[in-house]
Amino acid sequence: MTLVGHEAAWEAWRAALSGERMHHAWLLAGKKGLGKASFAQAAARELLGAPAQSEHPDILTLTYGPKNKDEAKKRDDGKPYELARGIKVDQVREVQRRLTTRPTMGSKRVVIIDPADDMEVSASNALLKSLEEPPQGTYFLLVAHSPARLLPTIRSRCRTVRFPALPASAMDELLRNLAPKADIATRDAAIAAAAGSPGAALAFVELELGKAAQLMRRIVDEGDRDFSLRGQLTGVIGARQDIPRLQAVLDLARAILAERVTGSAGDPRKLVDTHAELVRLTGEQPTYNFDPGLLGMEIGTLLATAGAASERGNG
C-alpha cells in the first residue's frame, strides 16, 4: 500500500530500479511519523523481488537495541526491556560481519538503518567505511528524521529522497479515515500538534487532548486573569507522570503558539521568546520529569503571556 505523500519517493526509487546503475546508498529524510521506515521496508522488498509484507533474510534492519546486558537478557527471555538511546558501534560491526558472507537468497542484500541520525559517533564512523567501499550487491537505506545530525561524509555518499509534511487538508482526511471516532476538537488538535506528520497525528489522537487544545487557545485569545483556565488545563493534563503524554502536551502548546506567531501583525519578538521557552521545556521534560501540575501551570502562563504580547503588538 502506498502511504500518503510517498508518490514522489516511489517515482524516484522505481526510476533508479529501472536504470542501468542503482545507487548503493539512499537517505530517506523527513520529520518523524511520515512513514519513511515503512517505505524503506517496502522498497527493500521490491528491490529483492520479495512479496509485499513478507520477511526476508537479506533485509537487515538496524535499529535501537537493548540498553545494556541486563536489558538484553530480558529481551532474550521474552520480557519487556528498555531500549538504548542510540545505535551502537557493536550493532554496526555485527551487520558488517554479516556483509562478508553471500546473500541468502540471491545476489542482493539491503541494510536499513532506522533512525540513522541516532547512531553514536563511533557507529557513524564504522558505517562510513561500508558506504565508501560497499560490498557488491549491498544497498543501504538510511532513515533520518534530522539528517543534519549525520556526518557530512555520510550524507555526501547517499542519494537523498525527501518526504514532505502533509498539508492540513490531507491530514484531516487521513484522520477521518483512520480515526473515525475522534471528534473535531481532537482532530484539529492532532493536526496542529503533528505539523504534517501522520504518525504523530494518530499517536496524538490516542491521547485525547482535544480539550487541552481548546483551553490553550482560550488562554492565548482571552487571557486568564483569575487562573481558572490554567486550573482547568492542569486538570485535563492530569497528575500522572506520563512522559509521552506530557511531551504531546508541550508539542501542542508550541503548535498553538506558532499559529499566533504566524498570524501576529505586531512585533513577534515576545512571542518568539515565549516559543523558545516552550522548546526549552520540551527538551528538559524527559530528563527532569517535571510535576505534571506545575508543568500545566507553566504552559498556561507562557500562553497567557504570549496572548498579551500579541494583543499589545496588534493594538
Automatic annotation (TrEMBL):
Pfam families: DNA_pol3_delta2. Residues 58-80 are annotated as: Disordered. Residues 67-80 have a biased composition (Basic and acidic residues). InterPro entries: DNA_Rep/Repair_Clamp_Loader, P-loop_NTPase. It comes from Qipengyuania aurantiaca. PANTHER family: DNA POLYMERASE III SUBUNIT DELTA (PTHR11669:SF8), REPLICATION FACTOR C / DNA POLYMERASE III GAMMA-TAU SUBUNIT (PTHR11669). This is AAA family ATPase. It comes from the Bacteria.
